[in-house]
């Protein structure tokens, strides 16, 4: 099938160079397992699980069947003051994967909505405790927390912020954790735990009692996989505990096995108060996100409201949509039946070894990785991002899909990948990177 720019013009594509794309479209028209097919019939191996979504591979019939059955049985239920069984079942399943004590799940439709929901839950919690003065939030440079006003405000990637004024006030950014001396470190780097003291500095500058929550991606994903230095998350937890600050882990990428355990909280042994998720919750098959909170937060907010009154004035028309719940339940069943989180953990050493073998290439200036996710930086060309954008296109036409942010590629294969698929991904990368 051939597409011309004219037929593509009406869709204003997100995070895309629209003019460039429409002049030379790269459409994916079919997916199966760890492969896509482009509109010219080319087969493309999926090196980034789509966009970190399709952990169990593409077009799983179990999910398609569950969604189709749901659409025939009950296509929509208003989520306010009514419900359907699937959302309760999925909330119970998600809770069972959470660290102890995190047992309450609020459904959204995306990672961005999960972040804004978590911000509002944090505000509601402090207000319910009579601490409504906690209006400040702490996040980090190079963070990505989605694109809604809350997430954009928390975010720390300049291109995502600079166009937009009038974001949320009272956000403090800690430094990011990329350090020259950690270059090519595999897993958690040795250096940088002291960067958590930036939270302590915020406490000393603004007063701990004014800070509502600290938002952190356990592994900063979109910016290029910044793995937390040893001791860093532990220290953030300590500071939060001392000052009554909620710790929020944004696990939109890490959640559902990417780090080798269900959630990064478990991989790193640090339990936050709130966990945000999306992406692999439905294996990417339908849009859905969620915010999981601990008992203390849920009980406090709920019990502060008058009996029989709505406790949290927040929610989306499509919160816990029946089809998304059906997709989520089917996806979680696949993860469990096929032990996919364990499989991700088992495949991790081989995956990391192969990706780190690229460090001998001149163009590769750093590699970071943990579990089944790794980022590699390519030496900047004429302008930041130019080389990465071109490389992503060249890789696509060479049969490999990899997500790029600027000059950084992020590899995160589906957990159903075999070693030979990892070899294929790294082989194509080596060939193209060697040409730079
Ligand atoms: C850590 C993190 N938070 C939030 C988001 C936003 O999710 P969405 O694009 O579903 O709104 C993303 C998306 O990549 C993410 O990586």
From the N-terminal CA to the C-terminal CA, the straight-line distance is 31 Å
Number of domains: 2
CATH class wording of the largest domain: Alpha Beta
Major beta sheet, specifics?
A: 7 strands, mixed
User: Hetero groups bound?
Assistant: pyridoxal-5'-phosphate
Radius of gyration: 21 Å
CATH architecture of the largest domain: 3-Layer(aba) Sandwich
Summing up helix and strand content along with how strands pair, one would put the structural category as alpha/beta
Strand order of the largest sheet: 4-10-9-8-7-5-6
Number of strands: 15
Mean pLDDT reading? 97
Instruction: Give start-end ranges of low-pLDDT stretches.
Output: none
> CATH superfamily assignment of the largest domain?
Type I PLP-dependent aspartate aminotransferase-like (Major domain)
Percent strand: 15-25%
Number of helical stretches of at least 4 residues: 16
Q: Classify the helix fraction into a percent range.
A: 25-40%
The shape is: globular
- CATH topology annotation of the largest domain: Aspartate Aminotransferase, domain 2
